[in-house]
Design a protein that fits this description.
With about 200 residues, the chain is an alpha+beta fold. It has four helices and 14 strands. It has helices spanning about 5, 25-40, 85-100, 170-175, and strands at about 20, 45-50, 55, 60-65, 70-75, 75-80, 105-110, 115-120, 135-140, 140-150, 150-160, 165-170, 175-180, 190-195. The strands form four sheets. The chain has a six-stranded antiparallel sheet. A four-stranded antiparallel sheet has the order 8-13-10-11. A hairpin with a 2-residue loop joins strand 2 and strand 3 (about 55). The longest helix has 14 residues, at about 25-40. The protein starts with a helix and ends with a strand.
């Protein structure tokens, strides 16, 4: 699937901002990796402070990376667990395509359509000025929404397929927010991995 097929207005997302590879991992390989990640990752439901109130994340999460790596968001600091062989294998596959190296990965486990991720940009200071973030998806296809930070009426969406790789780069995080919304349709489980480099 080409970039032109993803968005009606291709000029909003040139190749230096988004690159989508829908069948990066084969179906059998994706199923095996999904099963391994669900059963071996140390999943947690974190409590974050949102607008001054404690709120449980509507999904399970985990943070892995190089020794000593930490990441701060919503007022909390998270320290990465040690890489697993499966995570290192995925990382080694995507780094040549992303043309960078990653030292950490945030995993999100969406158990069904009720699990979600709200509007946000990956613009924490630890990620640098123009971060490259590689998003790998296994399991249920879910819609990925983007909206212009200064104009919420300007929106685009694409479905992230099982086994797909989406690379966000350039100044995308400065000008766009993204989300995975709740769904009223019945949804199977989905695991999303966002590889990044933390300074």
């Amino acid at each position: 699937m080409s970039q032109t097929e993803l968005f009606k207005h291709k000029d909003h997302f040139p190749n230096d901002q988004l690159a989508y590879h829908p069948d990066f991992f084969g179906q059998q390989e994706s199923a095996a990796l999904m099963a391994e990640l669900v059963s071996t990752i140390e999943w947690k439901q974190e409590t974050l402070i949102i607008y001054g109130r404690p709120v449980k994340t509507p999904r399970l999460t985990a943070w892995y990376g190089d020794e000593g790596i930490s990441y701060t968001y919503s007022g909390r600091q998270f320290f990465g667990l040690s890489w697993t062989p499966a995570l290192l294998g995925i990382k080694s596959r995507i780094e040549p395509i992303a043309q960078t190296t990653f030292n950490s990965v945030l995993l999100n486990y969406y158990r069904d359509g009720n699990d979600s991720m709200g509007w946000h940009s990956d613009d924490e200071p630890e990620l640098g000025i123009n971060p490259i973030i590689a998003s790998v998806n296994f399991g249920q296809e879910r819609r990925f929404d983007l909206r212009k930070t200064n104009n919420h009426q300007q929106k685009h969406s694409l479905n992230l397929a099982n086994g797909s790789l989406l690379i966000m780069k350039g100044d995308l995080q400065h000008h766009w927010q993204h989300q995975v919304a709740k769904s009223k349709k019945a949804m199977r489980a989905r695991v999303n991995l966002t590889f990044r480099f933390v300074f």
